Amino acid sequence: MTSGTSDAGFYVCGAMLLLVGAVKLPALVRRRHDTLLRAACLLLFSAGCLMLFAAPASIARLNRLTDVPNLAAPVVYATTTVFSGASLLLIVNWRPASPERTRRVSRLCVIAYGLTALAVVALFAAGSAPVEQPVLFDAHYATTPFLREMIVLYLVAQGVAMTAASVLCRRWSAQVHGSLRAGLRILGPAYAIIVCYDVLRLVAVAARWTGHDLDFLVGEVTPLLAPPACVLGALGFAVPLAGPRLAEQVGAVRELWQLAPLWRALRDVRTPGAVRAPLPWWRTPPPLLLTGRRTALYDAILALAPYCDPALRERAYRRALADGADPSHAAATADAIALLDAHARQHRTAEPPPGAPDPSGASVTPPASGTTDPSAVADTPPTPDTPGTPSAPRTPGAARTPATPATPDAPPARVRRARDLVALAQALASPVVREYRGRRESYRLADPSDVSQKAARHE
């Protein structure tokens, strides 16, 4: 029932499980009919209480405070039974199945293990255990009426639940991926270790029935199995809960790092009307920081739309193709050059009013400032365009009437998703963009026709 394992290990594990359960309580209050959440909370609290009650110091203290020898035994065994039922209940609700089948199996599980826990308490009350046995209770009272049945009942109930849970975890892990799969593959061995724990104790009890002494299995061997089972069990349930959130944080940090070149290139673009509160990186969660960064980049790209030169973009696109890039990478490279050139133009000139002709001669009606995502500009079906080239977005609020398109290949018509921003940021490191940056001053000082001639001669 207990071992020489340090009490600190039991108390730390128990406190962590109870803390996680307490964090889940507000969600349980809001979603009190969520059977999966109820099963998870029951498991966390029963496992936490089991760790606290099973600590050697807790067993001695409980027996001393109540002045009832071995009262800790039914407390620990009943809590163990509840934990076993909660583990099986969680796996049943976790695993995909029809709602009717899940409810039926859950109901049977709750009834069976609830009655078993009550039976453990009743059998202890009916039996007699005058000699305190904090370590060898199972072996010492293996032949005592009522206590014998109590010991066998809790061991069999736990063994059946752990075997079923281990099999379900192994089968289900082959059908899922990610953190859930990792958690299931950790839980499978944890439950298998508990099954070994139960089998060894049953062997020691059966040996007492036949007049043999295998008490060392109870006092020395099975206590060694408890710590790894507890650690693996805690990890198995923590990974699916924390895995998605951790993956979100890591993914946000990774994308922020990928977008850094584009942010450095466009962070000083004038975006009139776009109001954004500063987000200090040291106290802002990475996903929120990423949302703000995307918003700023989208606003900057939309603000640069009137300054984009389609002729320059076309030359850059052909140059990237000639350099060996595939069409998608060549398009991202051309967009990056068009944006860099538009940024330079915006700094040299005043921003044209809405509807004013852009340098290519097309009439552009830029979207409202502060737009957080160019996909909002493309809610209406795009006007068909040249195959392989995305159409320009329509003006918001004009879904029923044809809108005058902006430059067909202007970056805002292409940059509509987060991956487009990443592609633009990566394109900034391409040889074609480096070549443009090296000749940028000559492009700025020349007139458009001269630029075209110089570009044609260079090509």
What do you see in this structure?
With 459 residues, the chain is mainly α. The model is unreliable at 1-5, 351-409 and 442-459 (pLDDT under 50). Helix content is 68%, strand content 0%. It is elongated. It has helices spanning 7-30, 35-54, 56-66, 72-94, 99-126, 137-140, 147-173, 178-209, 216-266, 286-304, 310-322, 327-348, 411-414, 418-427, 431-438, 440-445, 448-458. The protein starts with 6 loop residues before the first helix and ends with a helix. The relative contact order is 0.07. It has 17 helices and no strands. The longest helix is centred in the middle third of the chain and has 51 residues, at 216-266.
Keywords:
459 residues, mainly alpha, 17 helices, elongated, disordered N terminus, disordered C terminus
Percent range for helical residues?
55-70%
Order of helices and strands: HHHHHHHHHHHHHHHHH
Question: What structural class do helix, strand and pairing data support?
Answer: mainly alpha
Q: Gyration radius, to the nearest Å? A: 34 Å
**Number of distinct beta strands:** 0
Low-confidence stretches: 1-5, 351-409, 442-459
Question: How confident overall, as mean pLDDT?
Answer: 78
Strand composition percent: under 5%
**Sheet of most strands:** none
> How many alpha or pi helices?
17
Layout of helices and strands, plus pairs?
Elements: H1 7-30, H2 35-54, H3 56-66, H4 72-94, H5 99-126, H6 137-140, H7 147-173, H8 178-209, H9 216-266, H10 286-304, H11 310-322, H12 327-348, H13 411-414, H14 418-427, H15 431-438, H16 440-445, H17 448-458
In short:
The protein is an all-alpha fold. It is 68% helix and 0% strand.
